[in-house]
Known about the structure:
Elements: E1 7-11, H1 16-27, E2 31-36, H2 42-48, E3 53-57, H3 63-77, E4 82-85, H4 100-127, E5 131-136, H5 149-169, E6 174-181, H6 188-194, H7 196-203, H8 214-225, E7 236-239
Parallel strand pairs: 1-2, 1-4, 2-3, 4-5, 5-6, 6-7
Helix pairs in contact: 1-8, 3-4, 4-5
Amino acid sequence: MRLSGKTAVITGGTRGLGRATVEAYLAEGALVVCAARRPYEIGELQEKYPDQVDFVATDVTDEDSVAALMAYAVERFGGLDILVNNAGASRDGRIGRLSLADWNVTIGTNLTGVFLCTRAAIEPMTARGGGRIINVSSCVASRAATGASAYSASKAAVEMFTRTSAVELAPKGITVNCLSPGYIDEGMGKALAENERAWETYRGRLLSGRLGRPEEVAATAVFLAADESSYVNGHVMEVNGGLLWAA
């Protein structure tokens, strides 16, 4: 129970990697507030962990919505110790065809959302004597991919925001790290594996020879929130099975 008694807010926590992280945190004893636009199947977890998990409808691009989320976490569970900035959006498309609206949605969710949630978490974490912030990036933050200009740019910015935040928040006892998943058997990764032609290309880039499992990413998110990682700060941790960009 490495997170026993800790309160965590996880954005994008109702499905995909966010949902896997919520489950892992609950299993480690954390009190969790899932933040997303829609609850999806979060009711299953509320039935299993009735006193440990709650859901708040949240738009991470809206300042007031984010402020209400953090205030609710403090009111519901008494404070805030961990923030996982997982909410994300992808509007992939080649630059010549990418609309401004799709660009703004991607940047707004993936980058501005991280900024707003991080800023709103500072005061309640400081009141607890410190905390952990974990931002979720992507393997394409550091590797060029056709059609992913908005997504890649937003995730690259998240990684630099992580480093800057770590510098600024260290005096408050808050560590800030970044989790960078590779191709995972969930969402876009699963769709990739189902495309036989594309998968033949990408499988050769994975030293592990397989997609990662959501629980493998979630286990790393637990480590970054637990006491074992107390001396890890400003770090981008890749969980990608040994991803090569050329094979």
